[in-house]
Amino acid sequence: MQKNSFELSPMALSTRSETEQVIFEEILGARKVVLNRSTKLNVLSYKMLGKISEKLRTYENDPMVKLVVLKANGKVFCVGGDLVSASKFVAYGHWSFGTSYYRKEFCLDYLLATYKKPMVAILDGSVMGGGVGISIHSTFRIVTENTIFAMPEASIGLFPDVGASYFLSRLPGSFGEYIGLTGARLDGAEMVAMGLATHFVPSQNIQAMEKALEKMVASSDATSVTTMSMIINKFAQEVKVKPESVITRLDMINQCFSRKSCEEILYSLEHLAIQVQEKWIHNAIRSMRFASPLCLKIFLRIIRQGRSQNIEQCLDTEYIAISHILRRTVSNDFYEGSRAILIEKDKKPQWVPSKLEEVSDEMVAKCFLRSFTEDDDWFPLRLPLRYDKAKAMTSKL
Where is the Enoyl-CoA hydratase/isomerase domain (predicted)? Predict the structure, then answer.
């Protein structure tokens, strides 16, 4: 297999059927990027990443473009990257094939994090992993009653990436640790409460909101973010989290997930479960026990480093760790997780090491070394030059 076969895998974009994996629409001063792979839950293929990046750069430099809308066809926004294809390419070729995908994905995430045109992401369905990466930096992040948010990568032998060490570390207290270590799901109301979303708009109002935004940019030469916000507010609703929501348990979450190590976090949860009989505690314990021990420890390190890093630094750190996971520097967990969860689907991954206590600090440290050789055929992450790198220092959350 030639190395460029990963990049040249056929993904036709010639029609407006679902074989066209992403659709681009131009409506006067508005541009729409529509994920169109609904039968695959809109997972992001390598070709999609390239096409979206190319169009976004064109829109950013076009003075006629006032607004970019990111949305998806089907009942799901995007459940992440195409991990099945990535794992198969690596299995049948060379591990560095997989890093090609992550370089492309992280460059798109960085472009979006530093984008200078107003963006509206419409998350009317599940948004996970890579789907979060392409939407979290939008000026407006619209959720509905259908929205489900999660970062469940540790359950398949990875860790929350796509800049998660940046945006999850900006959440209140240790809530980011909770989300990344347990893969817990949030609904639209909870996303708004935590700052992961800006507006809650009922699904039945989404189309009318889009039309109103299109009309606004068509009638105004100078379209301000404030005006866009006023338009969205006309369709938005104030929404409260449910009484049993984990959002109302922040004190307990901080108490457990602020601990120094994964072992201490799990012990704290188990101790809390004896005192408090609540479902979220037992779910958190079960999820951490199910996930890759190595990947849990990698994530805990990167989210805590990420609090003092900008988005560029976070993506670079994540890329190094991802490269080591693909390389099997310490463990085969990514391939085992892909087999058990995504391919054979027996849901019985055999992690090695199998317990948190067996994952040494030295093992984790190896996943952050730039110890690649020419034989590895590995390339560093080269993020695109942007108009103002300082903008990457400021969180949009």
Answer: 31-368
